[in-house]
Amino acid sequence: MNLFKQGFINLKFRKKILLICIVASCLPIMTLGSMWYYQIQDSLVTRENENLSEALNQSILNIDYKIDNYLNIVNQIVWNEEIKNGLTAEYDSNYEMYKFYNDTLAPTLATPPTLQTDIDSITVYTDNQMNPYDQLLRPLADINQNSWFNSTKDSNRPTLVASSEDEIFKLIYPIFDERRMYNNILQMEINYQQFFDSMSSLFEEDYGVAILDSDGNPVYSYETFSDRSLEGKFSLLESAEGVDNIESDFVIQQAELPSYSWTVYLYRPTDIISAATLPMRVTVVLVILLSILIMVLSIYLLAKVVVRPLEKLSENMRKIEEGDLTVSVFNSGTDEIGSLIKQFGDMVNKLNNMINQVYKSKIAQQEYEMKALQAQINPHFFYNSLSLINSKAIMAEQEEISQMTQHLSSFYRTTLNKGRSIIEVEKELENVISYINIQQLMHSNSFDVHYELDKSTYHYTMLNLLLQPLVENAINHGIDHKESSERGKLMIKLKRIENTLEFSVTDNGAGIEPTKLQSILTTKTEGYGVRNVHNRVQLFYGSSYGLKYESEMDYYTKVTLVIPIVHGETQLSHHVDE
């Protein structure tokens, strides 16, 4: 040991540095390279899981969007008072019955399948003694033997009926009758293949997808493998317990469709990933060897230079790394190190100039793109179109169409707000009142609205589009889902309390479950959502402002919005900056 130590001390300085650097550099490279070599498979599996998860989430969003679209259609039918009255009426003559069929039932049920090819048919089944009318109206006896009938006839919520074996997909929704004289069930037949067509194009090949309902029954399945021995090995169609037994053969991702208790599985064979890693492993070995060779040569060359100029260069590089681009690099020598330092100084100056040029050009490009985007948005064309529709509706004596176009014009004028995010309180109220008027027309005036507004607050300013999402939730999730026969009511209030404005939206709808009420402002919601409103308010005004909820099941829900009083757009900007 002493002989080795003495021999190392007696080495020339350049060789000593060379030996130390080679040993110190090669050991970490060899260690990291070895770890990388064995972790490539895990990395690719992780990446594949991420790809599967992204594809799965996109598919679920697509399914959710389609189902929401179907629900919107059936809701408009189920809550149509004319349809409901016609199905529960006592007819004295076939003429009255035919008039209901021809004027109300047929136009309402036949229009959606005409507009959307993925909807095959919409049928109402009733136990009222009415004559059948093609596929639009059938006796309830036609379906009372179906397995799903007993679970849906007494439900007040829509039910999905799907089966991969029979390739059927239906949306069942009982039509609520306050008098409970008859049972009326709406059935929407959806084209099974068109609904799930996106599932068969997630990847080009070598993947499978399966969807199970809450009872573990298959709703949909699809497989395409180049290795035929893998087909049918995935046993999800019989039981979800098979997932644990095949994880060594497949990379699996699963996600829930919570609203309907569906579980979606997406899986790909691990053999594909293993085969893809072989070229990469060979590349890793070559890169490690090449890196060691380059490092040895580099250390040998660096060991020849003088230490002092390198230290100066290192100090200047450290300052540049910290972002100080004003550093001036000088060296009086004319050797290679001196030349390197001089070139480094020139590079810093050029880098500084390039950054400034790129920064300025980027700003100019963004301004141009913004102007180009704004130029594409021509609200005058939209308003003129609505005005023309309104004129045509008045000439045709279509008062409801005229009202709808006027409300739409007012709603979008205040929504767009000339591209500004700050609006007067009065304009914000005009926006939400227009929205409510539109909803009343869409709901056939099935609910009442009451306003209590302090007009002395109208000249203040606020962030726009804060109230409309609250009213939308009150109507869609409150009044639309109330089970009592009491007429829907919506109350909008505005009052000033010291230096704050307090808005409140109250409905007498279904209410919110206590567990959901506690987390409604902290969990992610669908669409624009109250969480978005709450976050915007707190971001602009501070954490002491925002939304507050109170609710009682089957009785009422009240949401309160509190913001500070601001007298103008300029003051609001100052407030946000603070």
TrEMBL record:
The keyword ATP-binding applies. It is a multi-pass membrane protein. The chain crosses the membrane at residues 17-38, 282-303. Signal peptide: none annotated. It comes from the Bacteria. Its EC number is 2.7.13.3. The keyword Zinc-finger does not apply. It holds the Pfam family HAMP. This is histidine kinase.
